[in-house]
């Protein structure tokens, strides 16, 4: 398998964390790309019409995207039935937590792009702040449920939330989210110590 990636992408981190948890990380070859919200990279677009990472290229040339699909594929490939519980309340809870983490990441990325990808004369501060309100609401939700989040043997929900909190540390240190969310901070400290998370810490290219 080949993965079109960007080393700073939290969605790529999510995929690789799942790959480590499933024991298939050594079966994935990383392919360099220049993912950008404005400039399309032809290397990605050849396999994914949205030209976004992560995109997973299978041995037969088929491509899978986005992170939600790739993570579930990897779990299925490895026979891991814990990341994505098969049915019942556990499944819906895991998928809802994944949606929360993905939603926080979507909002955080839009807030970042407003300053880094949009020309200064076109930036809309109120739009950026509205995205950060979503992030703050997500943090409040995580704080309220922190005691029930798994620290070991996580589902896709905890993996996604861990990647979201890691992205805030990486790109938004000024938010100082731990100060008002001590329970979430304690959970995150334990979760980020997992080998799968330590192996996938984002970094600048």
TrEMBL record:
**What's an example GO BP annotation here?**
L-phenylalanine catabolic process
Question: What InterPro entries does this protein's entry cite?
Answer: Glutathione-S-Trfase_C_sf, Glutathione_S-Trfase_N, Thioredoxin-like_sf
Domain GST N-terminal as annotated: residue spans: 1-82
Among Pfam families, the record links this protein to: GST_C_2, GST_N_2
Keyword Nucleus assigned to the entry: answer is no
Tell me the domain of life.
Bacteria
Q: What keywords sit in the KW lines?
A: Transferase
Keyword tRNA processing assigned to the entry: answer is no
Q: Which GO terms describe its molecular function?
A: glutathione transferase activity; maleylacetoacetate isomerase activity
Cite the PANTHER family for this sequence. Answer: MALEYLACETOACETATE ISOMERASE
Protein name per Swiss-Prot or TrEMBL: Glutathione S-transferase
Organism equals Bordetella genomosp. 13
The organism's taxonomy opens as: Bacteria, Pseudomonadati, Pseudomonadota, Betaproteobacteria, Burkholderiales
């Amino acid at each position: 398998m080949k993965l079109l990636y960007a080393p700073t992408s939290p969605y790529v981190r999510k995929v690789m964390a799942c790959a480590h948890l499933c024991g298939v990380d050594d079966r994935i070859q990383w392919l360099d790309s220049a993912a950008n919200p404005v400039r399309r990279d032809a290397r990605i677009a050849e396999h994914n019409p949205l030209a976004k990472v992560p995109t997973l290229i299978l041995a037969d040339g088929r491509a899978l995207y986005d992170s939600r699909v790739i993570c579930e594929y990897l779990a299925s490939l490895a026979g891991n039935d814990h990341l994505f519980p098969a049915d019942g309340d556990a499944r819906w809870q895991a998928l809802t937590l994944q949606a929360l983490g993905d939603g926080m990441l979507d909002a955080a990325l839009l807030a970042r792009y407003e300053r880094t990808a949009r020309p200064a004369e076109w930036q809309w501060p109120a739009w950026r702040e509205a995205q950060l309100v979503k992030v703050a609401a997500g943090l409040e939700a995580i704080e309220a449920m922190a005691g029930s989040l798994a620290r070991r043997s996580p589902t896709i929900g905890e993996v996604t939330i861990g990647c979201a909190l890691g992205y805030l540390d990486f790109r938004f240190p000024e938010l100082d989210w731990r100060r008002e969310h001590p329970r979430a901070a304690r959970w995150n400290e334990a979760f980020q110590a997992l080998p799968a998370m330590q192996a996938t810490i984002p970094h600048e290219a």
